[in-house]
């Protein structure tokens, strides 16, 4: 699929479900591999990223059987991983690379972790620094980029304050902490997603967290389990976005993960006037899950800054692309992190939204996207002959949704990149789209 035509649409209506959460799937797979006894993970993410994690674990001797979204993992125990003869390839997945860096640091064998072009340009010092403090031996290109050559070492626990909010760094330290004797302690000045903490507790590790500090006892004994992954709210956001772009829309999205460290985007949408309803909330393997429904409404617009940035980090592309459809526009600040994601998301959003006629001001740490009040347009965007997502799945989906409400058709380059997180995106969209 070299290019994809995006035609304007009237509404998205009906009921959909969303594949399993990407972040949770990575974590459950890794912990199941380290557990004693078999595990079953239902509704495992269909993302290419999560398949990368499974493939890396296989290369280290873990037996994995996958039937669509049901994954069975034969746990090898905490000390049962074996050296991979080949490099471990994380593809496009930052989570795979950073979490596995923590896992591999404490093994009694050496490993090389690599990734695709985009991942080999992303910052890795943020995991190398704390892992080295624990005694890890990691050689990196220019001391900061993958490939990472990790020599197995005996690790010691540390107390570490995260200099920047990052669940990936936190998780890397916790995974390394499992191989250190004693208590590893982490302080998070800004709270980030806590799926690793929840999954560690579910598998039987001794871990305590109060939302600011996490303490993990090393050398835990994990036990294989049956678990199920909630739908990915960071994928659901594109459908919430489509409903807010297209008048007449009415959507129901079943079984979405609502972990409070991930669901801030729903509060933000409601604050802007979106009629989002949450029902059937329940706890599933330590994670909150519920059904969402949404109707179209004209949004007021708003600003995202400070601590909430970390909690909506993956939803920011869709929120920015909603900007032209809101009354007062969307402003994002304190989000310099967006520049080191799968692409420079600030530059990619500014470029593509401008191609559709949006008024965008690019800031060093965010962007301002003007709303209807400033542009005075009834149809805020026009189709763009080229939408270039720069190989970034979330830019591709956010711009596709923006293009659905535009006047005239758009052409999305490289739609295949969407499979990194949501291979079913277009099929799901087709099922609810009315033209
Ligand atoms: C993730 C954490 C976030 C997020 C990424 C997935 C995770 O990254 O952007 O898509 O699964 O831990 P950072 O921890 O680098 O902010």
Polypeptide structure, described:
The relative contact order is 0.14. The chain is 30% helix and 26% strand. The model has no long low-confidence stretch (mean pLDDT 98). Strand 10, helix 5 and strand 11 form a beta-alpha-beta unit. Helix 1 packs parallel to helix 2. The protein has two domains: 221 residues, UDP-n-acetylglucosamine1-carboxyvinyl-transferase, Chain (Alpha-beta prism); 197 residues, Enolpyruvate transferase domain (UDP-n-acetylglucosamine1-carboxyvinyl-transferase, Chain), CATH 3.65.10. It is an alpha+beta fold and 435 residues long. A five-stranded mixed sheet has the order 16-17-15-2-23. Strands 4-5-3-14 form a four-stranded mixed sheet, covered by helices on one side. The chain is globular and about 65 Å long. The chain has 14 helices and 23 strands. Bound molecules: shikimate-3-phosphate (S3P).
Q: Distance between termini?
A: 22 Å
Low-confidence stretches: none
Count of structural domains: 2
Strand order of the largest sheet: 16-17-15-2-23
CATH topology of the largest domain: UDP-n-acetylglucosamine1-carboxyvinyl-transferase, Chain
Short description:
The protein has 435 residues and is an alpha+beta fold.
Which key phrases capture this entry?
435 residues; alpha+beta; UDP-n-acetylglucosamine1-carboxyvinyl-transferase, Chain; 2 domains; 5-stranded mixed beta sheet; 4-stranded mixed beta sheet; 23 strands; globular; binds shikimate-3-phosphate
What topology does this entry show?
Elements: E1 3-6, E2 11-17, H1 22-34, E3 36-42, H2 48-59, E4 63-67, E5 70-76, E6 88-89, H3 94-105, E7 111-114, H4 125-133, E8 137-141, E9 145-151, E10 159-161, H5 167-177, E11 183-187, H6 195-202, E12 207-209, E13 213-217, E14 226-228, H7 233-245, E15 250-257, H8 264-271, E16 276-284, E17 287-295, E18 302-304, H9 308-311, H10 316-322, E19 330-332, H11 345-355, E20 360-363, E21 366-369, H12 372-375, H13 393-404, E22 410-413, H14 425-432, E23 433-434
Parallel strand pairs: 2-15, 3-14, 6-7, 10-11, 18-19
Antiparallel strand pairs: 1-22, 2-23, 3-5, 4-5, 7-9, 8-9, 11-13, 12-13, 15-17, 16-17, 19-21, 20-21
The structure holds shikimate-3-phosphate.
